[in-house]
Amino acid sequence: MANGHEVHAVSTRFVEWGTDADVALRGRLKFRWNAVDYSHASGNRLRITSGARFHLCRAIAKKVGPERVPQGLLARATTRVLTEIVRTATTQPADLVYGGGGALMAAALAAQRLRIPYAIDLEDFHQAEQDLSSAEGVFSNQLAQAAEGVVFRGASFLTAASEAIADRYATIYRRRPLVINNTFPLPTSEPEFHSIGTGGLRMYWFSQTVGPGRGLEDAIQAAGLAGIDCELHLLGKPSNGYLNRISSLANDIAPRLKLIHHPPQSPDRMVDLCRPYDVGLSLEQLEPLNRAICLTNKAFTYILAGLAVVFSDTPGQRALADDLGDGALLYTPGDIDTLARGLKRWVDEPAILLAARRAAWAAARRRWHWHHPQEEGTLLRAVDEALR
Fold first, then answer.
1. If I label 221, which of 24, 174, 248, 324 is the partner at 20 to 30 A Cα–Cα?
2. Domains, the chain, ordered by start
3. What b/e readout covers 43-66, taking b as 16+ CB neighbours within 10 angstroms?
4. What would the pLDDT profile of 270-308 be if each residue is shown by its tens digit?
5. Strands lying side by side in the sheet with 201-210
6. Element (H or E) spanning 249, and its range?
7. Are 261 and 280 in contact (CB under 8 A)?
8. Which of 361, 358, 340 minimizes the C-alpha distance to 201?
C-alpha cells in the first residue's frame, strides 16, 4: 500500500546490470511487481521472438507510414514487448493504469482491456528524442508522435518531467501535462562538506550509458584550459570505443585530469555514490531537441548529496540552475572559457566551493525532493481526481 493505493508495477528486464538491480530491489518492495524478461541470460526465447515481431512491425509501419498504420501494429512498432506488457498488466483487476517511457500505448491498451482510465507519464519529449541526422532516427520520432496522438486523447491526465517538456506538449496538443520532476526522497543522513582532496577537484557524472552527445568533452576541455588538478568520475555502461576516445582527448589537452570509469550500480545507491565528490555535471546539449528541454535525475541526485552542480544553459535546466543560486555554475554549451573560469575559481577558492555545495543542499531540502507537495502531492491529487 502506498498513500492509500495498492500498486502493481510492471517493468521490462533486458540488460544485465538492470537485472542485478531488480534482484536487489525486490526484497525491499512494498508493492506487487512483475517484470517482462527478454534478457540474454534468462529471457532469450522472448528476446528472439519479440525482436522478430518488433522489426517486422517497424518495417510495415515504415512502408505504410506511421500516421496511417493500424493502431495495433503501431503499438507493436513502438514497444518491443507490448503484447507481454499488456498481458502482465491485466492479470489482476485495477482502477487506473499509469504508464510511460516506451510503453505509452501499452498503458492505453491495458486500460482499454480492463475498462478503466489511464494516465501517461512523459519523462522525455518522445517525438524529438532521436537524432535527426539519420533516417532511422527521423522514423523513430515519427512513430513516437503517432503513438502520442493516439494515447493523449483518452488519458485522464498527463505528467511531464520538466516545465519545458510540458510547455512543448501544450503547444502541440493544447493540453499541458502536470509537471512532476525527477526528484527523490531526502536521504536519511545529511552530506558531509569535506574540502578538496589531494587529487584536486572531484567531478562526477552518471547515466545508463557513457557516450557522446552529453557534454563530457566540454568538461575535459575546460579542465585542460583551467590547468587544474582534477578527477572526472564517470559511472555507466560505456558505448563502444567512447572511453578510449575521451581518454585520448584528456591525455592530449588535459594532462592534469584523471579520468576514472565506474560500472553501473543499483539505482538505490545513486545519492550515496555521489557523496565522495565535489561537483556534479549536468551537461545536456541543444540537439536533439529532447536533450535541450529535458531535466534529468542527475541534478536532483547531486544536490541531495550536497554537490555543487555545473549546468549547461538549456531551456530544460535553466530554471533549476537559477533556483540553486550559488549552488550552480551555468554556462552555454561549448563555451569552454566560462566553464574553465568557474572550475578554476572553485579550486582557487575552496570556501566558495563549500558555500556552493551548502547552497545546493539547502535548495534540495527546501524544494527539490519527492515528498514536497509539488512533487508527490501533484501525482496523488491527479490520481485521486482520476478515480472519482
1. 324
2. 8-183+372-386 (3.40.50), 201-366 (3.40.50.2000)
3. beebbeebeebbeebbeebbeeeb
4. 999 999 999 999 999 999 999 999 999 999 999 999 999
5. 257-262, 230-238, 201-210, 279-282, 308-312, 328-331
6. helix 242-253
7. no
8. 340
| Long-range pairs for 6-9: beta carbons < 8 A, 24 or more residues apart | 6/31, 6/32, 7/31, 7/32, 8/32, 8/33, 8/34, 8/89, 8/92, 8/94, 9/33, 9/34
Q: Got the DSSP string for 163-224?
A: HHHHHHHHHHHS-PPEE--S--PPPSS----PPPBTTBEEEEEEEEEE-SSSSHHHHHHHHH
Q: Which residues, in sequence order, are CB contacts of 178 under 8 Å at separation 6+?
A: 157, 158, 159, 160, 166, 378, 379, 382
Cis amide leading into 288 (omega within 30): yes
Cβ atoms of 241 and 248 closer than 8 Å? no
Secondary structure (3-state) at 6? coil
Cβ distance 14 to 38 under 8 Å? yes
pLDDT digits (tens, 9 = 90+) for 123-132: 999 999 998 8
State how far the Cα of 90 lies from the Cα of 113, in Å rounded to an integer.
7
Q: Which pTM was predicted?
A: 0.94
